[in-house]
Task: inverse folding
């Protein structure tokens, strides 16, 4: 009886002392750092967003209006970008492949921020084949695939991204059951890849995908719902490639899938000197609209 009474008192003591410590919710002071973000797209006006990185509990980063953004093209001064509000600065210059773009950002009280990038020329796209039923997942649901050929220069390191842009869906198609050796070589479930394994001037890639919805009728197996889409193949800069890969790891660390993903923290990739952010770009080739049907 004494033993039972002793155990009861210990449990009561633990209950009264546990979960009573106040979790510190105030984050340490964080020195604000200039942040420059821009994705340069061929044949589009160059735009950059300027802000100050702040501490972790900041709900929304405010764009800066008092910055001076100088644009250089191939190391020659081109123009002073114009503020269009909310930290966005716009040029009158259309981005072209194989030209070096550099921004020098002056913000009162901070060192000059520098960032530069050169985007590659677009690839050529041909022989697009849609496969309505390419396989079945572990639950027996069928999924489609897209098979296509694009040009490549094996003499230099190149980087690409393939996107299946669906009509009628807010998001693009998602990869499923990666079988292509070039994509498998990347080690991540992304359609961002290099030409490390591509030794020819052209490569044929197969992407199995899922549209995010499925249906079934008359007791038939579940099938992925097909939507009209366009296929976009982007020729991306090295910094774009690194950022996309690191962004996936960063998101995985922030929002881990219970029991499957790691809760390890990853930093975002940055190529901005004296600040944070990403300054990268791409050129792209886009297919005509493809309307797949089950046969």
Result:
């Amino acid at each position: 009886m004494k033993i039972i009474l002793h155990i009861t008192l210990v449990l009561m003591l633990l209950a009264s002392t546990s979960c009573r410590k106040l979790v510190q919710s105030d984050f340490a002071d964080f020195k604000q750092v200039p942040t420059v973000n821009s994705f340069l797209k061929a044949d589009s006006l160059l735009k950059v967003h300027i802000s100050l990185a702040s501490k972790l509990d900041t709900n929304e980063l405010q764009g800066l209006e008092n910055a001076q953004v100088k644009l250089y093209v191939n190391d020659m001064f081109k123009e002073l970008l114009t503020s269009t509000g909310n930290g966005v600065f716009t040029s009158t210059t259309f981005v072209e492949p194989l030209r070096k773009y550099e921004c020098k950002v002056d913000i009162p009280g901070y060192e000059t921020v520098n960032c530069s990038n050169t985007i590659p020329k677009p690839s050529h796209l041909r022989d697009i084949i849609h496969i309505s039923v390419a396989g079945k997942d572990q639950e027996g649901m069928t999924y489609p695939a897209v098979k296509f050929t694009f040009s490549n220069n094996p003499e230099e390191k190149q980087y690409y991204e393939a996107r299946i842009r669906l009509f009628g869906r807010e998001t693009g198609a998602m990869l499923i059951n990666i079988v292509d050796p070039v994509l498998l070589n990347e080690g991540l479930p992304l359609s961002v890849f290099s030409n490390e394994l591509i030794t020819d001037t052209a490569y044929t890639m197969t992407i199995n995908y899922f549209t995010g919805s499925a249906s079934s009728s008359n007791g038939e197996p579940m099938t992925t719902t097909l939507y009209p889409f366009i296929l976009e193949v982007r020729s991306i800069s090295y910094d774009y490639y690194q950022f996309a890969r690191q962004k996936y790891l960063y998101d995985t660390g922030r929002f881990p899938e219970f029991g499957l993903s790691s809760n390890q923290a990853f930093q975002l990739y940055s190529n901005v000197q004296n600040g944070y952010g990403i300054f990268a770009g791409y050129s792209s080739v886009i297919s005509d609209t493809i309307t797949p049907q089950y046969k």
